[in-house]
Amino acid sequence: MSTPVPISGQTRIVGIFGDPIAHTRSPAMQNAAFRACNLPYVYVPLLVHPPDLARAVQAIRAYNLAGVNVTVPHKERIVRHLDALSKEAELCGAVNTVVNKDGSLFGDNTDGRGFLASLQHRGFLPHQGDIILIGAGGSTRAVLVSLIRGGSQRITIVNRTLAKAQALVRTYRTLGQTKLEAAALDRLQDPAFLKKAALVVNCTSVGLHGEPFPPVAFASTSSRCLFYDLLYRPDLTSFLRQAHSLRRPTVDGRQMLLHQGALAFSLWTGQPAPLPVMSRALARALRPT
Ligand code: ATR
After folding, report:
1. Catalytic: which of 75, 87, 179, 195?
2. Is 249 helix (H, G, I), strand (E, B) or coil?
3. What pLDDT does residue 1 have?
4. How many CB atoms lie within 10 A of CB 38?
5. pLDDT confidence of residue 4
6. Residue whose CA is closest, atom 30 of ligand 1?
7. Would the CB of 135 count as within 6 Å of ligand 1?
8. Pocket test for ligand 1, best of 160, 169, 213, 231 (most atoms within 8 A of CB)
9. Is the CB of 161 within 6 Å of ligand 1?
10. pLDDT at residue 167, as a whole number
11. What are phi and psi of 155, to 5 degrees?
């Protein structure tokens, strides 16, 4: 492991705003990257309770932090406190990375681009085939915007509350050339629906605590259909376990975490991220103790 760059008068501080925050693995990943690149940066967890968010944003300027990551529950609420937004952040209405440019705070969202990068890493391109997104919350929004901007041809948003999936379709219908549809959760049991899918993504919170996933006609998918769960656990989620048992390729949320972090690193430092270093640090940090 590389030697830490000593804290000095030159040290730049980056942090992560969240509540709760004790579980975050981002400090391990980012500090390993700063060390590997010999950069005088340090990344710290910052517990920010919702009523304190505006003051915490002011503190980015007051302490001249290089920037911050933003996690639950602040991603949407921080938007109104920033000076400028990237196109993605504007389209998602959410920010996961802030860059301090001489006191002007620029909000970006690397979640969706991180998701795309992790797919590309697996050799999957967004225009490769039909895509099913399960869920209609904030993480679906980030993934959806990036897939549309990446040139996907057809995406169906499946959600327990159909009206929320329909609302997403209405919001993003004109963003690109992608054909967008909404469907109810029981559509996942329809073999004909699953047959044409090239990618199925779980963007819901179902499975985080080991609970079973609603019924899906896994066996009707093509043998190359990629199953992606934005969640991750020490063991496989129910969603990925079922796909894996049918020998379908699978990816979990650690890959998105890694790639969104790599993009944030580059935004703060202007340098390419040392991906293998970050990947190893993340794996170590996620290892059960
Ligand atoms: P995030 O911001 O992480 O996407 P969210 O906005 O709370 O989280 O969205 C959670 C998603 O998980 C929603 O799509 C939710 O479905 P509803 O819109 O019907 O609430 C979905 N979800 C949560 N629990 C679920 C369950 N038991 N079965 C099916 N879907 C579920």
Report:
1. 75
2. coil
3. 60
4. 9
5. 74
6. 160
7. yes
8. 160
9. yes
10. 98
11. -130, 130
Q: Compute the distance between CA of residue 233 and CA of residue 237 in angstroms, rounded to an integer.
A: 7
Residue 289 clears pLDDT 90, i.e. is over it: no
Q: What does pTM read for this prediction? A: 0.96
Question: What's the gap in Å between 117 CA and the centre of ligand 1?
Answer: 24
pLDDT in tens, 216-226: 999 999 999 99
From the CB of 93, is ligand 1 less than 6 Å away?
no
Whether 96 lines ligand 1, by a CB cut-off of 6 Å, is no
What is the structure's pLDDT at 52? 98
The CA 203 to ligand 1 mean position distance, Å, reads 8
Residue 2 above 90 pLDDT?
A: no
The greatest distance separating any two alpha carbons of the chain, rounded to the nearest whole angstrom, comes to 62
Asked if residues 30 and 43 have their Cβ atoms less than 8 Å apart, the reply is: yes
Provide the Cα torsion 239, 130, 258, 70; round to 10°.
-90
Ligand 1 contact via 139 beta carbon (within 6 Å): yes
SS3 20: coil
By alpha-carbon position, which residue is closest to atom 8 of ligand 1? 137
* pLDDT surpasses 80 at 65: yes
Question: What is the number of residues in the chain?
Answer: 289
Give residue 69's Cα distance to chain centre.
Answer: 12
Q: Is 101 a catalytic residue?
A: no
Element (H or E) spanning 74, and its range?
A: none
- Distance of alpha carbon 151 from alpha carbon 120, whole angstroms: 13
pLDDT bracket for residue 5 (50, 70, 90): confident
**CB 176 near ligand 1, within 6 Å:** no
**pLDDT 10s digits, 92-135:** 999 999 999 999 999 999 999 999 999 999 999 988 899 999 99
Whether 227 contacts 249, CB under 8 Å: yes
